[in-house]
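Q: Got a minute? One more chain.
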Amino acid sequence: MGLLEDCQDLFGSSDLYEVLGVPRSSSEAEVRRGYYKTSLQVHPDRVPQDPHSTSKFQTLGKVYAVLSVAEQRAVYDEHGIVDEESDTVKEGRDWDEYWRLLFPIVTLQDIVNFEQTYNGSDEEQQDLLRLYRDCSGDMDQILDSALCCGPDDEPRVRRILQAAIDGGDLPALRAFTHKNCRKKAARKRKVSSVINNQYTNLIRPIRNLSVRRKRAASREAGFSSLISSMEEKYCNNKPAKKKKK
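A: Always. Here it is, folded:
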């Protein structure tokens, strides 16, 4: 299949701009950002449970490769076709390496900065509204697909979506409005699991290190006490006086 057919099959649309979630009037920087955001959602390392994640990620790389070249973008915009024989979309290219070249190693501070500007922004709200429609109101799917969101973000996400429903921007879908106690309990267990994992990975090693240090200090103190007693017994005793005949 060609690129447009792959997009239709994997993303439900053959429109390259829709696949990246950006309008046709987007600037080069906006197209790049759309590619970055969408690729984060489908990257095989992020969604290993999706059997199509690798194909989606590779297809996204081809989409961006087309729209990032002015001549090819102009041809697509005017005629709606893609040159399948060009080096841009050729098979066998390492799209993961291509992604890493476009977006250098992201530091923890970069992620924190992005979350601080993204969470609560109009951009996040629009993304959540789109996910609500795409996921038919299913909170599990919404939380799994949303950027910078985890199970503990459910109350905040639900407030945003409920406000949009109350304001008439979204339809009230049963999957969202109907309280499924079983699913809600499962999400709570997921939050507890995340917290437990954080404890296991962060707190417990620190506590164990503290315990080991205390034990080492205790052993050192015991050893020092033993040495002191031996010195007192064998080194510090005055020689016994000889008895006079």
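A: Residues 5 and 14 are 6 Å apart (CA to CA).
Q: Perfect, thanks.
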